[in-house]
Every structure is written in C-alpha cells, then in structure tokens.
Amino acid sequence: MLKKISVLFVFLFLSAGMAVYSQSDYSHEVNIKITVIKASNERGGIDPQLSHLSSQLVRLNYSSYQFLMQDAKTGVPKDELFFTLPDGDVLRVVLLTVDEPYIKLYVAMKKAGLNTNFKIANHGTVIVGGNRFKGGSLVIAITATY
Amino acid sequence: MAKNCKYYLEKLSAYLDNELNSAQREGVEVHLNCCADCRQYLNDLERIHGYTQDIYSSVRKNAHQDSVWNSIAAQLAENGSGTVKNPILWGRKRFAVWISSAVAACLILLSGFFAYYAFLKLNRNQCIVTWVESKKAPVMVYKDKSTNTTIIWMFSDENSVSNT
Predict the structure, then answer these.
(1) Which residues on chain B are in Cβ contact (under 8 Å) with A125?
(2) pTM score > 0.90 for this model?
(3) Architecture, CATH, for domain B5-79
C-alpha cells in the first residue's frame, strides 16, 4: 500500500516539475508594453487612462500626468523591439532571457543617451524618465509580460 | 370427547413436530385409532401446519437474506473460524484509502502552486537594475518601497532634480 502511495506521490511530483519546467521554457513570447506620459507641474492631475499607474506616478511629485501614447510589441528572447517616442527618440528594447520569474532586458534611448540593463518580474513595471518634453518631463512606463 | 382426550390434544402439536419420544408417540397413535374427535383435530392441525409451511417457504424464496446467510455460512465453513472477510467491504476500504491519498496529494500540490503564485505576485513589481549608463545627464535609480516600483531617472535640468 505504502509503495503505491509513494509511486503516486512521485508521479505527482514529476508532473508538477514538468509543469514548472514548461513554464520556464525559453520559447515563451514576451510582451513589452510601453506607456508614454508627459509629467509636468501644470494643472490637470492624473489622466484617467493612467489610473493603473497612478500609485507609481505620484512618487515623481509632479502635479500633472498626461497620457501621450501606448504601444505594445511581442518577441522572443534575443529579439530587438523598437518604439518611437513622441520626442522623436527611439526606445530600443532587447529581450535577453526569461529566467522565471524574471525577464532580463536591455533598454536604450539613443537621443537621451541612456543605456541600461535590468531584470524585471513578470507583469512588473519599470519607470524610465527625465527627458525634457514640451515644458515637462517624458516618463515611460515599461511593462514586461511573458 | 373422552376424558383423557384433553391430555392427548395437548400432545398432538408435539406429535406433528416429531417432538415426542417413542412411548408417547405410541400412546397418541393408540388413542387416535379409537377417538374420531382427536383424529379430526389432528387433521385440522395438519392442514394449518401445511399452510404455515407454504407461507414460510415462499417468504424464504423471496428473501435475499437466505443467500447472504448461506454465503456467510459457506465462508465460515471454508475459513474454519469465526472471521468473515467480506470482499466487497474490503475493496471499498482500499478504494477509500486510495481516494483519500489522492485527495491529500492534490491538496499538497495545489498548496504548492498557490505558494508559487503568491511568490510571483509578491515579486510582481520587482526590478533589479544590473547597470545603467547615461551619456548626457546624471541618472538615478530609485526604488519606491511602498509601490515596489523602480524608477530610472535622468536629471536633464535643475527642475527635474527638484521634483524627484
């Protein structure tokens, strides 16, 4: 009886292992979504389209957050994704690896002269900003999902 | 009816059931040969006895208990002891053990998955910046603990610095 129960447990354990392994498959597609915001000290508050980011944006201490654009692209590790920003700069995102629960990314903005390498949790958001744009600052929220 | 008929009438039922010894049986039979009333009474008794036998046998035919008891008796005879192993009940017990083991295993598995996804949820907004380089302006990496958000901020002018 004990033998049978042990076999059952081993089978279930292996199944769980297989499920977890399949989740960390490198062939998973990664979705990168960017939300571009103009942060300024004008009147206006937070744009309703940015409600999902409001708790993170208020930490920047601006009085107005205006939604400018949103774009999303999908790729697999080693792919390069390009997003054109409202100030004419190009945001280059290289999907390096998926290492559960993290996605490793290389992000560069040529005009702004920024290069950075970071790993972000699945569904996580990182905020990149500071570039001057029309009397305010350009803020980019990058969300990665696989 | 003769005086001693009362005595024999009481014995007739036992006579029919073969519960009398040979001397008593002989006495009853002698009396029956010479007493028409007692013979009539015996006939009535035999008829009633026949009816009850018929009813009893039909009830036994329809009852499943008979076969159950027969199988129990057979098992007792086979084992030679008072222990009866009911194969159906034994099978049910084993099935119940299997089911409870499977349920327990599933619960453990599910709790593992829940713990795993809870861990993922906790780490939802975590970001680890390996390196950052800014060619045009000072840059700061700030992690807001309350929202678990990482901010990479380029200080393009004095105004930006005062805000952050």
Answers:
(1) 125, 149
(2) no
(3) Orthogonal Bundle (1.10)
